Amino acid sequence: MKLSLIIPCFNEEDCVEAFFEAANNVFSTRTYQTEYIFVNDGSSDKTLSLLKGLYVENRDINIISFSRNFGKEAAMYAGLKVAKGDYLCFIDADLQQRPELVAKMVELLEKHREYDCIAAYAKERSDESKIARFGKKHFYKIMTKISGIEFVGGASDFRCFRRNVADAILELSEYHRFTKGLFAWVGFNTRYVPYEIQERSGGESKWSFTSLFRYAFEGMVAFSNKPLHWPLYTGIVSTVFGILYLLFYIIFNIIQKQMFSEAAIVIALMFIFFGLTLTALGIIGEYIGKIHIQVKKRPSFILSENYTAKEHEKNAPLLQKELEREAAELKKLKIKKAKFKEMKRKQQIMEQLVARQELEREAEQAQQEAEAVEENKAPKKVKPKRKKKAEPNEEEIYTTGPESGFEDE
Ligand code: UDP
Ligand code: MG
After folding, report:
1. Which residue segment(s) compose the domain that 23 sits in?
2. Alpha helices in 257-311 (DSSP H)
3. Which of the ligands is closest to the CA of residue 7?
């Protein structure tokens, strides 16, 4: 088994060495092999020469260096193209995302065959402004609405996935890439795990507010043609409104035998003609939308599994095993559920028992108090009663004894 770590680096001279040290500490002790793919995205500092230094001393390192800065999306795509691992992972070079979590993600993938991708999501970033946080939160909601695919808020590119997911992503060769969207688009079974974003190990974030806004806008355009429909809808509404307004105005004026106002007619005509123009734009938009999808050359579907009759001999025993394992897991789950139910039931009985004992104890206490009051009223019996004071306790012990009777219930 092999893990490929894809690390985009843009002006990360303060981080790359620390990153490699931290990652190597985690992965050198693992049973699986790890390859590092550092993608130098046109850095203008010492990033590349530091990477070369690491390369000279370590056999598991690959370096891809761009001729200029093409952006993180391009860096991730380039890394994915050369990665050879069975499991692959995108991780930033600044140690804001910990390699320890990658090891856990790999463990999850190993353990749970049903997951194809483990994506990390951060609930909150302390290094982010309130506006950026607000923008991101609503951006993912809007994206989910207009694109028809689910975007999980807070989920980043920090994810670990199987080879089949990587192959599907590689099939999407579009120029304007939005990897989070591509992962959502290709589907597969994704599990989201929370993580805490760490302090940058050095340097500073490469994203400004405007670049984030541009990135968000590109993501929206890449994953939804809905904005192209909007002129069509508004155009139709405007035209219909203009026509109704004109008709109503003419009929009303004829009935009332009034003069026609030029301004009113011009307003109605404006609604009609602006509406018609918008409708025409909307129709053109519909065609452009279709072309937009077509030029991306996205596949019409993505397979997750395929069993051919030709490979029956090979597949059948494997599937048999898988089905047996699933059945065993289901059985285990049922037993677990039953045990949990039983535990809950016992807990309830115990609670009832305790409540009943409490009630009994209170009742007995009240009775003893009442008896004591009675005895106080009769002064002759004061002495022997004092001796008897110890007896109620014995009695109490005896009478609370039959609590075992509840157990029988
Ligand atoms: N990055 C890149 N090209 C860019 C911008 C960023 O390869 O044009 C890399 C950067 O070196 C880092 C990762 O993408 O490894 C995330 O960038 P950054 O830490 O600046 O983003 P933030 O964590 O602030 O979202
Ligand atoms: Mg960062």
Report:
1. 2-206
2. 262-296
3. 1
